[in-house]
Write a structure and sequence with these properties.
Elements (H helix, E strand, L loop, with lengths): L2 E3 L6 E3 L2 H6 L27 H7 L7 E8 L4 E11 L2 E14 L1 H15 L6 E5 L2 H8 L1 H10 L7 H12 L4 E5 L7 H10 L1 H6 L1
Parallel strand pairs: 3-6, 6-7
Antiparallel strand pairs: 1-2, 3-4, 4-5
Length: 203
């Protein structure tokens, strides 16, 4: 019976082949007894600018590298962004745009790849993402050990996960952590503004 790794608790689980055959593109993500994780809610119909974010959100961690990515629609053009913050002040930041078809998960992964690529190998800082998918994919021991072998060859995220995993291992002083998204954490909201900057330039 095909075996998968739960993205919520990192434990292995099995799914019958008959269920998989009903939808060849379906990729089981968690045990049946785990409730589905709620999707991130956008804070506004129009993405906030960086200045608007700083004016609206004063709270949250004041040190770390905050990342975000999104596609609109999911499987459409997308963007990614990261911001490096020290004692509440911006140390560095970057963002980019993918004009072709991409996904939320791919842009979240890309944001983390770009952030880890920027960081010195001896950096000691938390890297924060509001994507459970990305954080669990890279930090769960079971996933890191078994995920590549458990994925189907057609999975479009596999190369990105492998690249991010390599960068993560090369930065032993950087802890990858999940942060709740769109609840008013200033620099998470700022990273979202970077990831959606392309929307404001074309809409």
């Amino acid at each position: 019976m095909p075996r998968f790794i739960c993205q919520t608790c990192c434990a292995p689980f099995e799914v019958g082949q008959a269920a998989l055959d009903k939808d060849p593109d379906w990729q089981p993500k968690s045990h049946w007894d785990h409730p589905p994780r709620q999707k991130k809610e956008k804070t506004a119909a129009r993405p906030l600018t960086r200045a608007e974010v700083l004016a609206k959100y004063p709270n949250g961690p004041d040190r770390g590298v905050f990342t975000d990515g999104s596609a609109a629609p999911n499987r459409g053009p997308g963007g990614w962004g990261w911001v490096w913050v020290e004692h509440g002040e911006i140390h560095d930041e970057a963002h980019g745009h993918e004009p072709d078809t991409t996904t939320n998960n791919q842009m979240e992964l890309r944001a983390l790849i770009e952030a880890f690529t920027m960081l010195p190998a001896d950096a000691e800082i938390e890297v924060l993402s509001d994507s459970w998918y990305c954080v669990n994919m890279i930090t769960c021991t079971a996933v890191a050990r078994e995920r590549a072998g458990g994925w189907r060859p057609t999975d479009a995220n596999l190369d990105l996960v492998r690249k991010l995993r390599t960068l993560y291992v090369e930065h032993p002083g950087c802890e990858l952590k999940w942060i709740e998204g769109h609840v008013g954490n200033r620099w998470n909201e700022y990273a979202d503004s970077l990831a959606t900057a392309w929307k404001r330039s074309v809409r």
